[in-house]
Specification:
Shape: elongated
Strand content: 15-25%
Helix content: 25-40%
Radius of gyration: 30 Å
Structural class: alpha+beta
Number of helices: 12
């Protein structure tokens, strides 16, 4: 949700005598770099790129982007493709939804591009000789429902074995130029889905949307759900490949799907006030918030079903440096379907000096396995995988201690957890009378001095610090120059002793 910045909040850059926002400067530089990369090819006389080869790249990217959210009763894949299933009796299919004919393949505003080719799902059916009855059902806008279109769609659904309903967010519902105030899809589409499901219980919903849309309110009306987002120019063939079983879906959610927009932590500060929006959630964005605070979601980050089944075993983590590690796991395709699975590695910090999420995705790899095949995957974790940004050090910081390494297939489907102990980066800051007692204890030199204070207390040379849980609660967050508040003159002598000893050790 983009905030409204005032001039004193924008970082500016100077380029060729012009003062422009730094973000625009970076975008402009990126475009210049892209032009420079293509300059060599574009300098060749009569240069033409291979349109079909580029379209195939778009096709493969779209295939791997499709996320299957639901597949009750194994309703997918369908057997209507004579090429994929030549011996099967074709199912009678109804295709409902204008998105099947007029795909929403890209975002709005400045993201608009002109594709070299555009193949809709209906175009693909025609090219592959797959028969289906089509009804648009609704218009791609936010206008009220058209009863005639709805009636046609319901009648079309009645005569089919399976209904493919193409639903989603029209361009008018989301844009870079305004914020959404709901996660719901247009009411007329949900109403149509309810009518169609009442006429035919075998419904598969194919979603087209540039940002997350609520699924829970209508999911009961669909046996299958495919989240296709915005698939680009070759989305039609990609969807057909998945729907008719030529490939197994292997996409994973890059965003949690919450049950309600109010569950998102950003809603506490949105839409802001008096021209300002605070990013008050800090690092607790998306799954980092939902998982840390145990919030129920509809579908978690990293989720995605397959026509195959997989097993992850033999998870291990080995330290490769002071603050680096490598993770290995064996992945087995336990089904009779060739397919790909994405192994995800999350790092969960132990006790930390700052607020950190329960875990964070720090590595992943997609592995393709034939039916029954096993492979060992390796994911390296560098120092940044364990670090957090420290305001105190104005740098990335790795704390010493034990970190949990979680390996799974979504942020909430963890197959196994192992541990690795890191040395930490050894970063310290000079200790002063304003440093807290806890900071003195945590510092290599400070810890020695704290021990010396305890020894001097036992010897009667300094006031003995009370050693109980209640006193520790007061001491740890307290700057040592506040010790006189608790211990009077004795506290003052302790603080001075600590500062003097530190000056000797830190030389």
């Amino acid at each position: 949700m983009p905030p409204s910045y005032t001039d004193d909040q924008i970082v500016y850059a100077v380029r060729d005598g012009l003062i422009i926002p730094a973000q625009l400067d970076r975008m402009a530089q990126g475009m210049i770099d892209l032009v420079n990369k293509t300059r060599a090819a574009m300098s060749i006389d009569n240069y033409r790129f291979d349109v079909d080869a580029h379209d195939e790249v778009a096709h493969q990217a779209a295939i791997e982007s499709i996320v299957m959210l639901k597949n009750d009763d194994a309703i997918l894949p369908l057997n209507a493709d004579p090429v994929a299933n030549p011996s099967a009796t074709p199912q009678k299919i109804a295709v409902i939804g204008e998105f099947a004919r007029t795909p929403r393949y890209q975002g709005g505003g400045s993201s608009h591009i002109t594709p070299t080719k555009m193949t809709s799902f209906l175009d693909t059916l025609a090219e592959r000789g797959i028969k289906a009855d089509f009804a648009p059902g609704f218009t791609l806008d936010l206008e009220p429902a058209d009863p005639a279109l709805e009636s046609e769609a319901v009648e079309t659904a009645k005569n089919a074995d399976v209904v493919l309903m193409f639903l989603g967010l029209p361009e008018a519902a989301e844009s870079e130029g305004f914020d959404r105030d709901t996660l719901d899809m247009p009411a007329k589409q949900i109403a149509l889905l309810e009518q169609v499901a009442a006429a035919n219980q075998n419904v598969v919903v194919v979603l087209s949307n540039g940002s997350v849309a609520s699924v829970a309110p209508w999911a009961k009306n669909a046996k299958g759900i495919l989240e296709s987002c915005l698939l680009g120019q070759a989305g039609g063939p990609a969807l057909a490949d998945v729907i008719f079983g030529q490939v197994s879906p292997s996409g994973k959610l890059a965003q949690s799907i919450p049950l309600d927009i109010s569950d998102d932590p950003s809603t506490l500060n949105w839409p802001g006030e008096e021209g300002h929006v605070d990013y008050g959630e800090g690092v607790f964005v998306g799954y980092r918030y939902y998982d840390t605070y145990g919030k129920v979601v509809d579908y978690p980050f990293g989720y995605g079903l397959s026509y195959a089944t997989f097993e992850i075993a033999d998870v291990a983590a080995a330290k490769t440096g002071a603050n680096t590690a490598t993770v290995t796991a064996t992945v087995t395709n336990t089904s009779d379907v060739d397919a790909a699975e994405t192994v995800q590695v999350y790092v969960a910090p132990g006790k930390a000096d700052v607020a950190r999420p329960k875990h964070e995705l720090k590595g992943f790899t997609k592995v393709f396995l034939k039916a029954g095949e096993s492979k060992t995957v390796t994911i390296d974790l560098d120092e940044r995988a364990f670090a957090y940004w420290s305001e105190k050090y104005n740098d990335w910081h790795v704390e010493a201690g034990e970190y949990a390494i979680e390996v799974g297939v979504s942020s909430r489907d963890i197959a196994d957890t192992v541990a690795v102990a890191l040395d930490g980066d050894g970063k310290t800051q000079p200790l002063t009378e304003w440093s807290t007692y806890g900071e003195w204890e945590a510092d290599p030199f400070g810890a020695k001095i704290v021990a010396a204070v305890a020894a001097a207390g036992e010897a009667g040379e300094l006031t003995k610090l009370p050693d109980n849980a209640m006193m520790r609660m007061f001491l740890n967050p307290m700057p040592i120059n506040s010790l006189p508040t608790l211990l009077g003159e004795g506290g003052k002598k302790i603080a001075q002793f600590m500062v003097d000893e530190y000056a000797k050790l830190a030389k």
